[in-house]
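so im writing up the methods section and need the Acyl-coenzyme A thioesterase 4-like record in one place, dumping it here so i stop losing it
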Amino acid sequence: MLWMHAVIYNLGFKDESLGGTYDGTEPMGLLWSMRPIPGSRHGLRIRKRDIFRPMEVRISVYSGHLSQGFSQQTPLATSVTERWYVAPGVKRVNIREKEIRGTLFLPPGSGPYPGVLDLWGVGGDFVEYRSALLASHGFASMALEYLTPEDLSLEDTDASYFEKAYQILNNHPMVKKDHLAVLGLSLGSAITLSMASYSKVIKPQCCVCISGSHLMPVEKSLSELFELMKSHADKLCVNEDNQVILRNLILSLPCQSTKVDVGRIKCPLLLVNGDDDQTLPAVESAEDMAMMMEKAGNRHLLEILMYPDAGHLIEPPYSPHFRATNYKLEWTKEKIVMLWGGQTKPHAYAQEDAWKKILAFLWQHLSAPVSTVTSF
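--- predicted struct ---
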């Protein structure tokens, strides 16, 4: 269990915080400013595993201004609140079809629903909470496991793997056929761009790419992409805190011959980026993609959200911000501390604003009615 805490100095929730982990009047500041308690192992990051159990947040009021030593003090009052990642009635379905591994979340009711193929990045174990939240908003969302599935090597994880997953989702009886979107984060965005540009099978109605780049093509297998990155490992930078900056490596790739030809994309595309992304060159990539699409005549399909002082890990709203965390490089298995970037308060704003706009974008282009599911 990872224990997190946030600290504010004020009189009540309507008063400004005068110090602690955030300043000002922020209704959800206690959540997005949480950080590991003092003395915790360095480089920790919180990610929800069991989405059917809420995240419990204990809120305590102490006398005076405290920044540590809470366990030795008696609080004046304590309350426990629960943060749920799934609405009542949402169903979880394991997908184990052929070699495809994933989890499908279905909204309450009889359906069919518009579908979302949800692709995370490389940052750890398989997680489901974004798909659970999407299902809570009326989408049949399938979180695809593509880096750690059993009996599947990186050499086997190629375009056909994602095409088969797309077909499974599109043919599911609870999914509105041919009303699908693909949503990716980080490496998941690179896969999304490659599939939308080149696949003859994956024909989404729209795509959302969070903190992605077209400079990481997935033409054949993930193994080949990682080998390409490994061959440019000398371009990795390390800052004074011994945190690894990946973005320079990505910029060093032979992009003119390998970058994804986004001029081939034929569906609306939403890019969600932070301008302090230290992992991928999101700003440079967005600018180049816009120029490529302008030249190809499909620039009208592109919408770019660029958030000042936000980092790489743009997650669902009120998720705690982590500027740098422990990480294992996929191509060497070396354990490092990865610098993701971002400043806490503007990053929190980016997560809240982007989530609303992502949902609106999906509903608009999947031609779905207004959702009646409880808002999260």
